[in-house]
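tokens incoming
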């Protein structure tokens, strides 16, 4: 089908059923009181004398007597035409524009764009308005060329044709409801012609995807056309006709997403959505998404975004189906309150066990902080605070703690006095090191050939480390080790004074101080030897 014929029929919906298909693109002019063909020729035609061609085409008997309210077919080739530059409404991030053969320049809001200009978004977006009020939002990482920007008949008809070479665009077409206006989006794979008001188009080297949000859009490829109605989409692969329209994924349920975030990266746990194989999320400071700050996609269960200034934002969330078609939008309002950044907590790791009654709590210096607020509690909810202090430094040592479990956190305070979010909560436990054991209940037996020692019983998870030495300072060691249990047997040493040292070792290797006990090893009695020798004296 001739594309111009298609567009003429597409863009004149009031005549879709009444008029036959014409061979050339044309404009339908509605007759007003007092109109004549001669006057219409003077007002709208390149050659005013071509009014006679209009008379023959429309089978008008009297060029001076036209019926108000009826329509007059006027071929576009006869109409007076003039350029209709587009206007840049807003720019966010890195966006550039270039004329053919010229270097790219930064695109700014308010700039006029003429036909032939290309617009490239990198980490940014731009909103462009055309002569009939249609608006195109060029998404990040996209390339667009403005092919035709014209008005006919003194503004009676607007002709807009753009070429999306790569990336994504969202369009609100003919918002002023101007009769006869037409908008066409050309991609390497297919052409989308407006029959509605709101739709999306994406393009890459292999395919074009179109999603209609309101109204109806005609998509043509490989000489075949499909009409894509509201909440439908289609895929047109290069060299192939468009696929039959399919229903877009439903808008996801965002009721469970957080309303306030104070940690980076900003993380949104994605809801369940039937048919979704991946997700698309965008953040903007306004619900119209004319200013797209961040654009992310995810195949996992979480969508994460980078640093944003504190403030209020909107998340636009869509599911993506197996064809790569984006589903219907859901908007979620949220607030970021993550500044000043919290510091990084120091050496005391999560679930650490400390043995000192006054452990050191330390943290790094935060660039945004002038002071810090530190809190210590016995519960994870910090309902019962033991410590809540504002400090200038990055180190704090509490008063002596009681044995048990503790929780602590730190927040930065900037120069204006604003406190940022707290760090993640750290938990630690304080358990004093074991004390010196009481050896008064020890049993010591010195036998003929051994010294047997039985120490007092210990709780489960503890054991003794013992030293048997010749001196009170336990330096001249005779034996040292960890007995299996509380009993040990040593070879009987020479007679003399000895010291027994014992300390408790816990399962994590923590040891307490030694307790000491003196042990005297007596000389062995001489008379058994005399009895052995007595028979010799009797000989």
């Amino acid at each position: 089908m001739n594309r111009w014929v298609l567009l003429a029929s597409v863009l004149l919906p009031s005549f879709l059923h009444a008029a036959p298909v014409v061979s050339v693109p044309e404009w339908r002019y509605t007759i007003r009181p007092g109109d004549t063909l001669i006057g219409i020729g003077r007002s709208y035609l390149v050659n005013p004398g071509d009014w006679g061609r209009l008379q023959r085409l429309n089978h008008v008997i009297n060029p001076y007597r036209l019926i108000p309210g009826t329509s007059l077919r006027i071929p576009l080739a006869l109409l007076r035409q003039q350029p209709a530059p587009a206007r840049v409404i807003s720019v966010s991030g890195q966006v550039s524009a270039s004329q053919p053969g010229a270097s790219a320049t930064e695109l700014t809001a308010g700039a006029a764009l003429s036909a032939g200009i290309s617009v490239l978004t990198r980490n940014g977006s731009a909103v462009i308005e055309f002569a009939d009020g249609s608006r195109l939002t060029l998404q990040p990482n996209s390339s667009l060329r403005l092919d035709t920007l014209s008005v006919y008949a003194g503004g009676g008809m607007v002709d807009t044709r753009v070429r999306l070479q790569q990336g994504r665009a969202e369009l609100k077409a003919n918002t002023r409801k101007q009769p006869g206006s037409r908008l066409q989006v050309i991609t390497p794979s297919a052409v989308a012609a407006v029959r509605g008001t709101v739709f999306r188009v994406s393009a890459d080297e292999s395919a074009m995807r179109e999603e209609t949000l309101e109204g109806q859009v005609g998509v043509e490829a490989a000489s075949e056309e499909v009409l894509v109605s509201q909440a439908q989409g289609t895929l047109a692969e290069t060299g192939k006709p468009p696929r039959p329209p399919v229903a877009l994924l439903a808008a996801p349920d965002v009721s469970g997403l957080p309303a306030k975030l104070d940690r980076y990266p900003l993380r949104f746990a994605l809801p369940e959505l039937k048919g979704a194989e991946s997700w698309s999320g965008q953040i903007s400071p306004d619900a119209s998404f004319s200013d797209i700050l961040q654009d992310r996609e995810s195949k996992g269960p979480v969508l994460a975004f980078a640093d944003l200034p504190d403030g209020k934002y909107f998340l636009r969330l869509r599911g993506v189906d197996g064809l790569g078609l984006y589903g219907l939008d859901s908007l979620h309002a949220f607030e970021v309150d993550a500044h000043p950044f919290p510091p990084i907590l120091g050496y005391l790791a999560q679930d650490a066990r400390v043995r000192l009654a006054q452990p050191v709590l330390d943290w790094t210096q935060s660039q945004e902080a002038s002071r810090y607020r530190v809190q210590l509690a016995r519960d994870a909810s910090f309902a019962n605070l033991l410590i809540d202090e504002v400090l200038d430094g990055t180190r704090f040592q509490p008063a002596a703690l009681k044995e048990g479990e503790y929780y602590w956190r730190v927040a930065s305070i900037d120069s204006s006095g604003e406190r940022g979010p707290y760090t993640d909560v750290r938990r630690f436990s304080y358990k004093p090191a074991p004390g010196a054991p009481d050896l008064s209940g020890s049993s010591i037996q010195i036998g003929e050939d051994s010294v047997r020692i039985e120490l007092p019983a210990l709780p489960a998870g503890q054991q003794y480390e013992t030293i048997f030495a010749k001196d009170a300072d336990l330096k001249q060691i005779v034996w040292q080790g960890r007995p299996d249990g509380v009993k040990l047997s040593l070879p009987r040493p020479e007679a003399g004074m000895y010291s027994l040292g014992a300390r408790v070792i816990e399962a994590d290797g923590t040891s307490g101080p030694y307790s000491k006990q003196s042990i005297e090893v007596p000389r062995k009695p001489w008379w058994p030897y005399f009895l052995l020798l007595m028979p010799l004296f009797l000989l």
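note: The chain is about 5% helix and 45% strand.
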